[in-house]
Amino acid sequence: MITLPLRLSPGDDLRVAVVAALLDSGQQAGFVLQGIGSLSVAQLRYAGLPQPTVLQGDLEILTLAGSVSADGAHLHMSVSDAQGRVLGGHVAAGCIVRTTAELLLALLPAHRFTREHDARTGYPELKISPDPLPR
Questions:
Q1: Domains annotated on the chain, with CATH
Q2: For 77-109, how does the pLDDT look when each residue is reduced to its tens digit (9 = 90+)?
Q3: If you ran DSSP here, which 8-state letter would residue 24 be given?
Q4: What b/e readout covers 1-21, taking b as 16+ CB neighbours within 10 angstroms?
Q5: What are the tens digits of pLDDT across the range 29-50?
């Protein structure tokens, strides 16, 4: 395992930046171990709902974790608002960094992650394979 600390800047799309960091590293598999920071917009899909809910305002990232592959990420996050209310769910594109986001990405050189449609769940799900050419 190789660790890659990341600092995202104001205006960055959190999900896009995480996938870009994996691609830039040349690796094929990774996990976000944790993340903290702030967002001005969070797009979270709650359990059982088909579309994300847009949260706007001063939001603090309390937790962030998930798997990352070259063809996407499966991230979950909890955030709190200015009144301390906590919400969490599946991270959709459009989570915009307000001041900073600090993440720790674990890269897994001996593995390749891909996403393949699973007829049982209806979603593209994680497929774990050995990487024939570890980088």
A1: 2-112 (3.30.1330.80)
A2: 999 999 999 999 999 999 999 999 999 999 999
A3: H
A4: eeeeebebeeebbbbebbbeb
A5: 999 999 999 999 999 999 999 9
